[in-house]
Every structure is written in C-alpha cells, then in structure tokens.
C-alpha cells in the first residue's frame, strides 16, 4: 500500500491513513506500506537547498513546524519525537554545510531530500502503534536491501537486489508479524550513498516491492500493489482540462505506461515495469474515497477476466491524454531517395544534441517527429547538419493528443475522431500509430488541444458527438 504526499499532508490525513490501513488489516490484508514525504516537504527541502546555495541562509521553519505540530497533534510518544527532531537537526546541519561551501552536488541533493520520507515513515509507524496497536516498524528502503545504479537524482533499481528484499520482507512480515513502513523514492547505491529514483519514484518503490513477491517460495497468497492517490483511480482524461472525466476501471500495464508517458500524472512513467515483469496487479485507489473500486492494472488476461466478471465490455477508447508545448520537426529530402542510412543520419543528430524524440512518422524520404520543449531543442549546428541532406521545417507550439485504445479497431476509432475534428475546424498535422498496440497519437496546434480533448471526450464518454451534418456528408462524399 503506497501513499503519496497529499495522503499524509498533515496530522488529520496521517490519522485517516492509519485508520484505513487498520481497516484493511481487519479484512485479512497483510500490508507493507510505502510512504512519500508529508505534503510538499520534498519541494520545501529542495527550495531550502537552493536558498542555502544562493544566499548562504538556512531556513526550514515551516518544515520543522509541520512535523513537530503533527507529532503534538497525534500525541505520539517521546521516542518518535526524538527521532524526528534528530533527523531535522541532521537536515539543518547538511544545509549549513551547503551554505558554507556554496556547493550543492547531485549527491548532496539526494541526501537532503531523503529526510522527508525518513520523517514521515516514523510518524505514520508511531501512529499505527499508538492508535491501533499495530506492530509497525519504520524502515529505510536500503535496510530492506534496495540497491540502485545510475546517476544521482534519476537512479534505477538494481534487479539483482530483489531476492534480498524478498528475504527481508519475509522475515519482517511472516516471521515477526511486523508491518514495514518503507521510505519511497530513495535507495542507496553499491557504495552506500543515498540516491533518489526521480520525482514520483515512490510508485516505483511500491511496484518493486510488489515484484519481490515472485521470489517468495511459498506463493500461498494473492499479492497486489495498491497505489493510494487523491483521485478515484486513473481517469478518462485530465480532470483539470475535462471536468467531466470519469474513472477508468481497467487498464493493462502497457496502457497505464503509455498514459503515464504521454501526460497522465497519476502514476510514475516507469513504475509499471517491475509489476509487469512479475505479473503483480496494481490498483489505483483514492485515500479520500476508499470505498471506490479504483482502477485495476494488470496483464491482458487479468483485465479480460475482471471485465467478464463485472459483465463489462472492452471500450473502443480507454482514455485520452496530451502533451503540450511540443515542437514538430519535418525533415524531407528527395536527394536521399533509395539511399541507406537516411534515418540513421537524422537520429544521430538528435542523439548528439541530447534531444529526446517522442512521436515519429516516416516514409522513405521524409520524417516527422516531435520534441519536448523541456527536453531540449535542436542546436544551430544540429539543424545545419540536417539541412545538408534535407529540407527542415520546425513548427513550435504544438500538442500531442494520444488515444489509449484497442488499436486493432483503429479504423473505427479514427473515423469517429477525424469526423469530430473535421466538423469543428481542427487540423491534424501528423498521425503516429507505431509499435505500441494501445496508442495512437495526433499532433495539432497547441491552441486547439483543449478543445479537441473536450470534443473527443464528449463523443466517446458522454455520448455527445458534436459533428456538423453537412461536413459529415462532405467527408462521406470524398
């Protein structure tokens, strides 16, 4: 059971989460808890680090007040208060060091932000013990054996540590009847240095722990990862753009990963990988509305079985999402007709510039692709290299609208989508239906994205297709 920062934002929310865990245990669930830092703690620690670096001042007053007031409000024992205060002193000392040397390395930044989860895990564990008599134990993830590789700030989990983690969990949960309250988002590398898994990495910690159950020798149980958020599961669209968005009851691992990558912010983009490899189902639940079933994520067989049990049919369109402020690059050259290496030369340029490509559509002599604005842009030298072999047209302020759908029914889906867009004067500049069996992406003007999302969502989910009949007749005639 993983809980995000908004679920444990203050004393009231921590009390609510503790009660929720206790209720699930009364139902026979044996939980391992993964926890984020309280509220916006990670953001505040990062801001304190920047201030210490830029101004030489250390300020964690609000952060200290939040944690100490939570301790008082929950009337937690002195032992918990001592540990939290000790962590606050360590955090302040580390920030003092940053302010003195005026240096904030990625390694130091990872160590700084680890204090949020380390404090919240102690507070929730103490609340479970004091209020519910649960044998909860706060546990840094590395004490379970979670090891990472790669760069600070964006570390990856070393899958070789799974058996060790499974053994540690078995010892705590089965042998000692303990409920581990594990720090999300953080781990340590082979040298014991604290690392982070990137923002949203607590989801990844949860699915990694879930994947460890495949190493459990006694598989006499059903294992599930529950990711508790502040929404009723994954939604048919971003509710901030489409207020009428509805919860999606079932999605496959691949669909969930595509939704996350193309803009849905409910789950971390790579968090599905460990669960998918281990075939451990993931359920997205709402800590503010625990009675709601949420969204079940699993392999195709699991989802098909769940739909049959519920008497539900697979929808034509599962959900839609968007990426905004992208750049569309068209590269075309008849000079390269029939010549090997055209695509390689193009992508070598983007690789040299360190620019990530999202969506691609190709023919023998032309390539259209999109670049995230935050991921960089073509350098002047890179564009010059492309222009040596091709005509290059760069169009900014575009958006990707992605459909998570049954691609085997793409003709039916796109017929409806293009009818709606054509009837409402929205032009599509690029379409990509590639290797993914669940994703179709369109590129259009960023200014048209919100309207396109609403029109398509209304048509598929609200049964209100805004199609101009005269325009539809014109399309049919063509």
Protein model, in words:
The chain is α/β, with parallel strands linked by helices. 44% of the residues lie in helices and 20% in strands. The strands form 4 sheets. The chain has an 8-stranded mixed beta sheet with strand order 3-6-2-1-9-11-12-10, with helices on both faces. The protein is globular, with a radius of gyration of 25 Å. The N and C termini lie far apart (54 Å). The mean pLDDT is 90. Belongs to the aspartokinase family. Keywords: Amino-acid biosynthesis, ATP-binding, Kinase, Nucleotide-binding, Transferase. Pfam families: AA_kinase, ACT_9.
Number of helices: 16
Low-confidence stretches: none
* Main sheet attributes: strand count, strand direction, barrel closure: 8 strands, mixed
Radius of gyration equals 25 Å
Beta percentage is 15-25%
- Roughly how many Å apart are the termini? 54 Å
Instruction: Give a count of the beta strands, DSSP E runs of length 2 or more.
Output: 18
Please state the structural category: alpha/beta
Give a short overview.
With 478 residues, the protein is an alpha/beta fold.
Q: What is the fold's blueprint, element by element?
A:
Elements: E1 2-3, H1 11-26, E2 33-35, H2 41-55, H3 61-74, H4 78-101, H5 106-132, E3 136-139, H6 141-144, E4 148-149, E5 156-157, H7 162-175, E6 179-183, E7 186-188, E8 194-196, H8 201-211, E9 225-229, E10 250-252, H9 253-261, H10 272-278, E11 282-286, E12 295-298, H11 300-310, E13 317-332, H12 342-353, E14 357-362, E15 366-372, H13 380-387, E16 391-405, H14 410-423, E17 430-432, E18 439-445, H15 449-461, H16 469-477
Helix pairs in contact: 1-5, 2-4, 2-5, 3-4, 3-5, 4-5, 8-10, 9-10, 12-13, 14-15
């Amino acid at each position: 059971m993983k809980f995000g920062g908004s679920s444990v934002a203050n004393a009231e929310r921590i009390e609510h989460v503790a009660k929720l865990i206790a209720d699930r245990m009364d139902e026979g669930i044996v939980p391992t808890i993964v926890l984020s830092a309280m509220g916006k703690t990670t953001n505040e620690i990062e801001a304190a680090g920047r201030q210490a670096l830029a101004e030489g001042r250390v300020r964690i007053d609000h952060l200290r007040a939040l944690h100490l007031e939570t301790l008082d409000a929950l009337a937690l024992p002195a032992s918990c208060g001592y540990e939290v205060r000790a962590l606050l002193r360590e955090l302040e000392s580390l920030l003092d060091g940053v302010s003195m040397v005026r240096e904030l390395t990625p390694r130091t930044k990872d160590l700084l932000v680890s204090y949020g989860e380390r404090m919240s895990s102690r507070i929730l564990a103490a609340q479970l013990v004091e209020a519910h008599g649960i044998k909860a134990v706060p546990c840094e993830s590395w004490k379970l054996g979670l090891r990472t590789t790669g760069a600070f700030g964006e570390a990856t989990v070393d899958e070789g540590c799974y058996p060790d983690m499974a053994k540690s969990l078995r010892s705590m949960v089965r042998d000692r009847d303990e409920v581990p309250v594990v720090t999300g988002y953080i781990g340590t590398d082979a040298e014991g240095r604290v690392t982070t898994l990137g923002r949203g990495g607590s989801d990844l910690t949860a699915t990694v722990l879930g994947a460890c159950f495949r190493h459990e020798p006694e598989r006499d149980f059903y294992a599930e990862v529950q990711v508790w958020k502040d929404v009723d599961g994954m939604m048919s669209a971003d509710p901030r753009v489409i207020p009428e968005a509805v919860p999606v009851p079932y999605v496959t691992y691949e669909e969930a990963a595509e939704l996350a990558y193309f803009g849905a912010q409910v789950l971390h983009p790579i968090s599905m990988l460990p669960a998918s490899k281990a075939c451990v189902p993931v359920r997205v639940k709402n800590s503010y509305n625990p009675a709601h079933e949420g969204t079940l994520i699993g392999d195709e067989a699991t989802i098909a079985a769940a739909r049959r049990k519920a008497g539900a049919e697979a929808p034509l369109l599962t959900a839609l999402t968007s990426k905004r402020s992208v750049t569309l690059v068209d590269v075309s050259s008849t000079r390269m007709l029939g010549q090997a290496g055209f695509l390689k030369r193009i992508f070598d340029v983007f690789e040299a510039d360190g620019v990530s490509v999202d969506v691609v559509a190709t023919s023998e002599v032309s390539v259209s692709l999109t670049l995230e604005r935050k991921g960089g842009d073509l350098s002047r030298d890179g564009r010059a290299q492309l222009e040596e072999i091709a005509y290059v047209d760069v169009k900014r302020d575009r958006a990707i609208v992605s459909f998570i759908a049954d691609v085997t029914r793409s003709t039916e889906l796109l017929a409806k989508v293009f009818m709606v867009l054509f009837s409402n004067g929205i032009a599509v500049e690029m379409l990509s239906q590639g290797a993914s069996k669940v994703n179709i992406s369109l590129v259009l003007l960023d200014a048209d994205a919100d309207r396109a999302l609403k029109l398509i969502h209304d048509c598929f989910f609200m049964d209100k297709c805004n199609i101009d009949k005269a325009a539809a007749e014109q399309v049919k005639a063509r």
